[in-house]
Each structure stands twice: as C-alpha cells, then as structure tokens.
Amino acid sequence: MKKPIILINFKAYENSFGKKGVDIAKRIEKVSTEYSTEVILSVPATMIPILSQEVSLPIYAQHVDSYPLGAHTGSLLPEMIKEAGAKGTLLNHSEKRIRADEIHDALIRLNRLGLESVVCVDRYELVEPMALLKPTAILIEPPELIGSGISVSKAKPEVITNAVKEISKVPGVFIIAGAGISSGEDVYTAVKLGADGIGVASAVMKAKEPEKVVEDFIKSGIKAMDEKNDRN
User: Which amino acid positions bind substrate, per UniProt (predicted)?
Assistant: First the structure.
C-alpha cells in the first residue's frame, strides 16, 4: 500500500459490475495515473478477473471466507481471489461481519498467499487487537455514519485520533478512516488527524462524475501528507 491510501468500495450498486463497472474503474485509473497515486478498488467477486485485466489499479475482493479448500459450496476463498487476479481483500465490513476466529484464520491464509488485507472495525477499542493479527491495514468506520454524508473526520474526529494511538502500538499496520467521507476537506482532515488514508463508497459510486470526486480526494490527501511531512 502507498500513502495516501485511497480505497474505493464498489459495493453492489448498479454501476458496480458489467460495462458500467469497467467504465468507472477506467475513469478512476486515469485520475490515479495523472497524480501518480495508488487507488485501490474493492469490487464484486465477478469483477475481479475482468478489472484485473482492464485496469492497472490494485483490485481487492470485498470479502473472503476462511474455510479450507474442499466441500464448501458458495464460498469465496483466498486462493480463488488470488487466481482471479486480486491483490487483497476487505474483511469484516459492517455489511459482512464475520467472527474473530474467522478473521484470524483468513488472515493466516491471506498472508501465506502474499495477499493484502484490510480488516474493518467499528470502534477504536478493536484497532489494536485486530492489528495484532497482522493485516495490512485496519479500516475504522463508525457504522452509524456509513453512507450518511456526515464524515467521521468532522462528526467524530476522536475516533480517528484514538485509532491512530492504538495502531501506533503495532508497527507496520496502516490505519484507514472511513464512514461518510464525501469531500476533499473530509480526506484532508482525516489524514491531518493521523490516518494513512481513507475508505469510501457511495460518494464515488453515486456521483455523476466519479473521477472528479476521486481527483478531489487524491489532491486533498497529497496536500495533507505533504504538510505532515514538512512538519516532521
């Protein structure tokens, strides 16, 4: 992962798959290339092999199961997403919660396969325990703000600052802020508060011109990172 981290969750909107999914991914890729900033796309499983061929951006699954290879009908396994071209996956999103032991088992497999992982948590008290399992990053998202248009960086900045304190106890794991992020100002504030980047979905996927929203996010993230580096 490269900072500022910009992670876009396609979820399961009408433009998340098929030709519309490819179109929005290519628009995002163009902006990503222009600003030399990595943008991660977390997409429906059916889109992993398509987008891993169509764009150069890192493609993530939205979820994997921790079952071993075998008789597990309907399961999406780490080995499957790697074969399909994914670079990593989300785990434990608020819309796809799994048990702690499943997170643990999935992370062991993902790490063994060389796949990245972003574990989602809904409160900062879970940041350190989950970080100890060695994911690539923790994404903290207060569920009540997801899709609200009211950003965590404005409504609950203490969630980010407390999460940053907790992640500092486990070197090598990134912290990403999400929930309600909808403007460049939200991104700027989140990064200035100590986040390594942001996770977003509806602000991009529901936008008439998603590439302009992503451009605003990237520019704001870069600005905040540059200011932090100058200060240090």
Answer: 9-11, 146, 180, 201-202
Which of 141, 166, 211, 215 is catalytic? The answer is 141
Residue closest to 30 by CA, chosen among 211, 205, 202, 210: 211
- Is 104 considered catalytic here? no
Annotated ligand binding at 17? The verdict is no
Nearby residues of 158 by Cβ (< 8 Å), 6 or more positions away: none
Q: What does the DSSP 8-state code read for residue 182?
A: -
Contact 84, 49 (CB under 8 A): yes
Q: Which segments of the chain have a pLDDT < 50?
A: none
Closest CA to 142 of 129, 130, 155: 155
Is 146 annotated in a binding site? The answer is: yes
Domains, the chain, ordered by start: 5-230 (3.20.20.70)
Please state, in angstroms and as integers, the Cα–Cα distance from residue 17 to each residue in 7, 28, 53, 94, following that order: 17, 15, 14, 21
Judge whether 85 and 60 are in contact, CB under 8 Å.
Answer: no
Catalytic residue among 29, 63, 93, 211: 93
